[in-house]
Amino acid sequence: MKSLENKVAVITGGGSGIGKAISLLYAKEGAKIVVSDISEKAGNEAVSEIKSNGGEAVFIKADTSRSEDSKNLIEQAVKQFGGLHIAVNNAGIGGPISPVGEYPVDGWDKVIAINLSGVFYGMRYQIPAMLKSGGGSIVNMASILGKVGTKGSAAYVAAKHGVIGLTESAALEYADQKIRINAVGPGYIKTPLLESLDEATMNALVGLHPMGRLGESNEVAELALWLNSDKASFVTGAYYNVDGGYLAQ
């Protein structure tokens, strides 16, 4: 039996990068996938790929920075598949690069809205649906920068630190109600978020990782899969980094 057989999973930011890798892997493992993204093109392409491989999936457009969108996403997921058992709050942006004393306020607001409030909005509606479904598992996508700082990305760092704290608090609140909630901290992964960087910057990022390379989206997806499966049945409130040794330095 596949590890996610007959489970319903919502993946935010599921149309590209890490989110798409998670959507495809979870479908392969038997889950019914709700791909959520702000890009209809990317979301529908992910759904088509899942279906072409024999999986079951639908696309629902949602902006994670809007609580109304998060509420509608879960309502539609439950209406489509009859319940909710798994969620991956993955959607996120990098934001502006600037020192705190010069950081654009609108940039701060946008990063916090998507990367932190978006995770809260997601869990706010995912958890009640999971309780009605008899329990479930949530993975929140944090970052290595949820544990340490870096220059120029104060909003991103603050948001990802917040995601880990939010994950721990929510995990404690629902630990005795059959809902597990964990966080994953990727290092720098080859995703569309890095496509705009020049070669010198990319090489510098590679050099930050003791393994001497960037991570792959599927490597993050495999960790998320374990956390969302029954194999991690005694794991909640945890943070797991997948970073090629970055945080060990």
The CATH topology corresponds to Rossmann fold
Q: Would you list the SSEs in sequence order as H and E? A: EHEHEHEHEHEHHE
Give the overall shape, derived from the CA principal axes.
globular
- Class from helix and strand fractions: alpha/beta
Number of strands: 7
- Estimate percent helicity: 40-55%
Total helices: the number is 7
Q: What is the CATH class designation?
A: Alpha Beta
Percent strand equals: 15-25%
Rounded to the nearest angstrom, the radius of gyration is: 17 Å
CATH homologous superfamily title? NAD(P)-binding Rossmann-like Domain
Distance between the termini: 40 Å
Question: How many domains, as an integer?
Answer: 1
Q: Main beta sheet, described?
A: 7 strands, parallel
Q: Trace the largest sheet across and list its strands.
A: 3-2-1-4-5-6-7
Jot down its keywords.
249 residues; alpha/beta; Rossmann fold; seven-stranded parallel beta sheet
Short recap of the structure:
The chain has helices at 17-28, 40-52, 67-81, 105-132, 154-174, 199-207, 217-228; strands at 8-12, 32-37, 56-61, 86-89, 136-141, 179-186, 239-242. The chain is of the alpha/beta class.
